[in-house]
Design brief:
758 residues; alpha+beta; Alpha-Beta Plaits; Nucleotidyltransferase, domain 5; six-stranded mixed sheet
Length: 758
């Protein structure tokens, strides 16, 4: 038997700290009668294991993980025997460079939820109950190894009972860093907009629920920041919240107490319910029920509703006490970052919230709720943030460390380290100083916790983005500018572990083109090292630039003027607008940049067919045009053509616009026009891909860009392309919109460094 004794050192990496991995290893070793030690290090979790038949231990280590653990690497070596007498859990050690990961913030688990409502449990109704399987992680951590002194819990000294749990490897709260109880942990309080406390800890939840029932607006401190909450069934209060928050029409999210309540609000399938109940607990955009009792102003002009289920103990307590759904929207003014600090919230939200439900556990890194939607048969992210970040995206290969700083709208930044990319949480639209400050916070936090010193900073080609300016002004590292749509292409390739080359159908609102025009409907061929523009939607004028983005009727007039060569037909939408100045701008080329934007094409068709003339939020006209189509109807496509000029393919828009105008003039409904338009665009783009395949021999197609948040377009293109034998790559872990840009920039930057630029 002694001949079979062996000692191995095993180093595992991934999400293995703060998720109960060490007690899992401890109990596994005891099950198999093995001795040794396990410790957290900055490089991961290091195990020294000694005994007979260690293969069984390794197999279980890989295959029977704790619920929230994720292995990204597993290295083992045989080392000399040490004759351990027991298995123990060692102290954390900072060894070498950081290569382990931190878990995202996790929704309260079923075990903690049972204890929360158990009158016999010592944490009965305690708003901060958690264990190794749930609770705050990324939002409260400052470094690795993930230990209490590197979290916002360091100032809360555990009582004897909590300390006993924390030190017992057999306990569910062994080394659960946010561990606490009513005796020693964080506390909640309720105060007015002047900051004065109006209820003690025992009365807080009941009093807060009563204020909500009376029509009050409540600022609630959550995991990654503050929410603004109100009764989702009270139309007057919802309107007041919109007015105070300066959020005119963009849909507001709703929180349900549990899955049963969510089912009464939306028609949910199994995948959508699974997303709601997952540890990430995102907002799920789903089909709203017509009789759900939700106030019309919560989600006007749409048949969808963004719903989430309570994911913190405090949410569970508040929703159960309130007894109905609550609006839970980000605690900020429009275009500003979400508030995370109590004083900051009182200063910035005092004009919005009537009352503040706060606590004394600090939030170190803000994070909005993630948003997902089921499209093309699976749940896909529209906004990747709380619950998913900082979970890495695995990429092919290794190489230099790169920092990418994204674009302007829906900004994220990304650190590329070894074979893993770490996109940040959603940082928002980087258009003002507050948002720019959050952008810099995000960069600092990622570099701090993962101890990464990048060799290159990559930014968007647009010279006026604040992210571009930051890259140029940081003055330490070399910089690289990357074209917007090339980054989209590279991001989808990287996410799908495909090195390319591939055909890219990249559709969005805008991106700065290499020729100085506004791109947005692109047919590219490329990989991480470069791209060629094989085609684009026929460029059309955009009168007034950003003014046309906010007023789709302007775009419609310009497109019609081009399509009919100045002989405009009389369409109903024109009666409300002064067309002369717009036509003059187009004819004289005054502040009318050319654009191939798919988003602007949607705007034009929407406005022409009786839809949005002006918008209150990005993409509103296109979203409502999509929803007008529904999922029924078999109307034929419009006639379409593709022309080639100087080796560039142009799917023609003029004939399409003329036919849409003819239908509008004939009184055809917007629903039919929308269905015909979608079908035409899909057929045109597939036709363009066929032309490119003939020239290149490529049969892999990437679909990326914000226009692919349109489920009709995404599903239609996937079906048509796969029907013609293409391998279609789409986003699964990152948003198709600009939230994916930073990953694409990062892998392009690494390729640039590897190609003799170091």
């Amino acid at each position: 038997m002694a001949d079979n004794l062996q000692r191995r050192r095993i180093v595992v990496n991934g999400i293995v700290q703060g998720v109960g991995f060490r007690p899992f290893v401890y109990n596994l070793a005891r099950r198999y009668g093995l001795v040794g030690t396990v410790s957290n290090t900055s490089a991961g979790v290091e195990i020294e294991i000694e005994g007979i038949d260690l293969d069984r231990f390794e197999n279980s280590l890989k295959n029977d993980l704790p619920p929230q653990a994720v292995l990204s690497s597993f290295a083992t070596e045989v080392i000399p025997l040490r004759n351990y007498t027991e298995f123990s859990i060692g102290l954390s050690r900072g060894v070498g460079r950081v290569s382990t990961q931190i878990a995202p913030d996790l929704a309260v688990c079923p075990d903690c939820l049972r204890e929360l409502f158990d009158p016999d449990d010592r944490r009965y109704l305690y708003p901060f109950i958690n264990c190794t399987n749930c609770g705050p992680r990324y939002s409260i951590v400052t470094g690795i190894p993930y230990d209490r002194e590197k979290t916002a819990m360091r100032r809360f000294e555990m009582c004897d009972d909590c300390r006993a749990e924390y030190e017992d490897p057999a306990d569910r709260r062994f080394h659960a860093q946010p561990n606490g109880c009513p005796e020693c942990g964080p506390r909640i309080s309720l105060c007015g907009s002047d900051g004065r406390e109006i209820a003690g800890a025992e009365q807080v939840v009941a009093r807060a629920a009563g204020l909500l029932r009376d029509g009050g607006i409540l600022a609630v401190k959550g995991l990654g920041g503050f929410h603004l909450a109100c009764d989702a069934r009270n139309e007057e209060t919802v309107r007041l919240l919109r007015h105070r928050k300066n959020r005119e029409e963009k849909p507001l999210a709703v929180m349900a107490a549990d899955l049963e309540m969510a089912r009464r609000l939306c028609r949910l399938d199994r995948d959508e319910e699974g997303a709601l109940l997952s540890p990430a607990a995102p907002i799920v955009v789903a089909a709203a029920r017509g009789d759900n009792g939700i106030a019309p102003s919560v989600a006007p002009f749409t048949d969808k509703l963004g719903v989430m289920v309570s994911y913190t103990p405090l949410h569970h307590l508040l929703l159960r006490e309130f007894g109905g759904p609550l609006v839970m929207t980000s605690g900020n003014l429009s275009e500003e970052p979400i508030c995370i600090d109590n004083r900051e919230a009182l200063a910035r939200l005092a004009g919005i919230a009537d009352y503040f439900l706060v606590h004394d556990r600090d939030i170190y890194m803000r994070g909005d709720d993630s948003v997902v939607m089921k499209m093309a048969g699976r749940i896909r992210p529209l906004r990747r943030s709380r619950g998913y970040v900082p979970r890495p995206i695995p990429v092919n290969g290794d190489g230099p460390r790169v920092l990418a700083v994204g674009g302007e709208l829906k900004n994220t930044v990304c650190l590329l380290k070894e074979n893993q990319a770490f996109p940040s949480q959603h940082l928002g639209d980087i258009k003002n100083l507050e948002a720019f400050g959050f952008f810099k916070e995000g960069i600092h936090h990622l570099q701090e916790i993962f101890e990464v010193e990048p060799e290159l900073v990559v930014h968007d080609l647009h010279p006026d983005y604040l992210s571009t300016r930051w890259a140029g002004e940081q003055g330490i590292l070399p910089v690289l500018a990357v074209q917007h749509h090339h980054a989209h292409l590279a991001s989808c390739l990287a996410e799908n572990r495909h090195d390319g080359p591939a055909i890219g159908i990249i559709l969005d609102g805008s991106g700065y083109g290499q020729d100085g025009t506004v791109w947005g409907g692109e047919i590219l061929v490329g990989d991480f090292s470069g791209f060629t523009r094989y085609g684009c939607l026929e460029p059309m004028p955009l009168p007034g630039g950003d003014a046309a983005v906010k007023a789709p009727w302007r775009t419609a007039v310009a497109y019609l003027d081009m399509a009919f060569e100045g002989n405009l037909p009389e369409l109903p939408f024109m009666a409300d607008h002064d067309l002369g100045p717009i036509r003059e701008m187009v004819r004289k080329n005054i502040n009318s940049p050319l654009t191939s934007s798919c988003g602007r094409l949607f705007d034009a068709v929407a406005a022409m067919s009786g839809g949005r003339q002006t918008i209150a939020y990005e993409g509103q006209a296109a979203i409502e045009l999509m929803e007008a189509a529904g999922r029924g109807g078999k109307e034929p496509a419009y006639r379409w053509d593709i022309i080639s000029i100087d080796d560039i393919l142009y799917p023609g828009l003029r004939a399409l616009i003329r036919q849409v105008a003819e239908d509008v003039a004939s009184g055809i409904s917007q629903a039919i026009i929308s269905r015909r338009f979608h079908r035409t665009l899909i057929e045109m783009l597939v036709g363009a891909a066929e032309r490119v395949r003939e020239q290149t021999g490529l049969d892999t197609v990437v679909l990326s860009g914000g226009s692919f948040n349109n489920y009709l377009l995404l599903e239609g293109l996937i079906g048509h392309l796969e029907g013609k034998g293409y391998n279609v790559l789409v986003h699964r872990q990152l948003p198709a919109g600009d939230g994916c840009l930073s990953l694409g920039q990062a892998v392009i930057g690494r390729s640039w460094l590897l190609n003799n630029h170091r």
